[in-house]
Amino acid sequence: MHFNTRFLLTLLATVSQFGSSSAAGWTNADSNWMNFINGNWKLNQINIPGTHDSGTYNIRDDYGWIGNEIKVAYARTQDLSIMKQLESGIRYLDIRLGDDDDDDVIIVHGDLYGESLANGKNDKGENLTLKQVLNDCRNFLNTHVTETIIIHLKNESNCKGIPFFDAHQIGIDSGNCLNSDRQKIVNNLTSNKNYYFTEKRMPKLNEVRGKIVVATRETDYNGMYLTFPGNRSKEIRLCSSNPSFKCAFDNNYRCCIQDAYELAENEKWEAIIRIINEQNKSYNQGDSRIENTLDINFMSTTVGTLKLVANSLKKN
Ligand SMILES: *[C@@H]1O[C@H](CO)[C@@H](O)[C@H](O)[C@H]1NC(C)=O
Ligand SMILES: *[C@@H]1O[C@H](CO)[C@@H](O)[C@H](O)[C@H]1NC(C)=O
Ligand SMILES: *[C@@H]1O[C@H](CO)[C@@H](O)[C@H](O)[C@H]1NC(C)=O
Ligand SMILES: *[C@@H]1O[C@H](CO)[C@@H](O)[C@H](O)[C@H]1NC(C)=O
Ligand SMILES: *[C@@H]1O[C@H](CO)[C@@H](O)[C@H](O)[C@H]1NC(C)=O
């Protein structure tokens, strides 16, 4: 499927009922697909596949309690390492940040779970650090120079280690984290302009081949600032129903977002397709706003997870 001048950022949760990743079967063309894309196109004009909670492939249950098995089945949204995701064509990584006790910035999925369960692990069983993820990306780009990788950085917990979801649930202030260690570490790691694009504008592909584009939901990390809200309910933010909704940079970009994840499978597909159809219609009608439109079409859902839990229990 190839959409010319189409603006889709598609997040695939490999462990959803809609897809299952296969650990093999991709080709060189998958690893270098951006080689075939016109470098004068801006990133929002390219249909870019991404993964949801990209760093969770090694999330494990360290405690052996059955409740934890269930949490892990929810939290492990990927079963490929970052490198394998990149080799199979993924170019957008959803990176959720937390801190560990040694002042490392680590990958967590702490939205639903306590942090001890939430840490992604590397192959040695250590906490997966942001540094390691970025190193993987850079190693990939060293040998795939036509490609670019968008990393989306989002706080999953505040600087006191309290997962936001829990903080909201129990009604505590998530705290003032300005000038925190995490902020300094993140900005330091992404400071080398030879490897990272952190400007607040939409680049053309040619400007960022071989580089990591930092996109962030936080105001104090360097990078392209995105402001779209998360929403677990059935909300679909079609451009036509929210014509003035801006989502990025200096308020010049409008977003069409589909992020409804508590839907039945058929409803979810309808939601995904509505975004595609709406943009197709705008494109066919020559709508000039489309150049400054960013489509974000999340494909993940939590529906059907019971089956997953059962599989996970079987596997272990
Ligand atoms: C991983 O991070 C948690 C804090 O989030 C920490 O308690 C734990 O000691 C860390 N594990 C390792 C192996 O560093
Ligand atoms: C995200 O974390 C950074 C570093 O701790 C902090 O400076 C920033 O305020 C946080 N953002 C939000 C929205 O909590
Ligand atoms: C980032 O941290 C490293 C190691 O601590 C340090 O040598 C370097 O100067 C820092 N870079 C910037 C831009 O702060
Ligand atoms: C989420 O979507 C629901 C339904 O459209 C809406 O009522 C609610 O305000 C939204 N929440 C946020 C944080 O946008
Ligand atoms: C987009 O519109 C064109 C022209 O009407 C049509 O041929 C094509 O099938 C549409 N694509 C999708 C994905 O609906």
UniProtKB/TrEMBL annotation:
Signal peptide as annotated in the record: 1-23
Cross-referenced SUPFAM superfamilies: PLC-like phosphodiesterases
Lineage: superkingdom: Eukaryota
One GO BP annotation of this record: lipid metabolic process
Domain Phosphatidylinositol-specific phospholipase C X: 43-217
GO molecular function: phosphoric diester hydrolase activity
InterPro entries the record matches: PI-PLC_domain (IPR051057), PLC-like_Pdiesterase_TIM-brl (IPR017946), PLipase_C_PInositol-sp_X_dom (IPR000909)
Keywords: Signal
One Pfam match: PI-PLC-X
PANTHER family: PTHR13593, SI:DKEY-266F7.9
Protein name listed in UniProt: PLC-like phosphodiesterase
Organism: Anaeromyces robustus
